[in-house]
Amino acid sequence: MAESKSWQAIPTNLTLEQFQEFVLPHLKMGIRGPQPKLGFHVMFNYILKLLHLGCQWKELPIEKNKDGQPEIHYTRIYRTFHRFEAQGCFDAIFAKSVSLLHRKGHLDISVIHGDGTTTVAKKGGDNLGYSGHKHLKGDKVVACCDRNCNVIAPFVSAPGNRNESPLLKAALPQVTCMATQ
Question: Which of 15, 36, 89, 103 could form a disulfide with 84 if both were Cys (CB 3.0 to 4.6 A apart)?
């Protein structure tokens, strides 16, 4: 079995140094309102944990404080995630990570793969469709990857009943945008 390279691992918990180097420069801090109870480092790690687990927001495992209460309510984490998404912070972080892979020589774009996958929806959700070929209701995602399976462009999603070939037309402009950056 091939040995996994450490740079291919998906981070699910960033140290404070990693957060300050890779994430913090791309976050837009709020200037109004009260200071958050937790720092953005902890909030971002909760967001990573949620994305890794794929659970509902209210099922997110939140640490308890000394009184036995959750240290923060899940809706605060959701609002922070939604604000970062609306401000384009995640797109900037993604673009920076791809450029970092390129600078370190880990990116091999001699071959670009358009990898499509269909995810089953157990209880419903957005962007769903019934795929008669796979006999499931779900969501289809197309990712463009390099030869080393590094994702080099944002995902294109569609209902599960769509074919992957027409989705390539929507994915190519994102690949060219990342290539110019």
Answer: 89
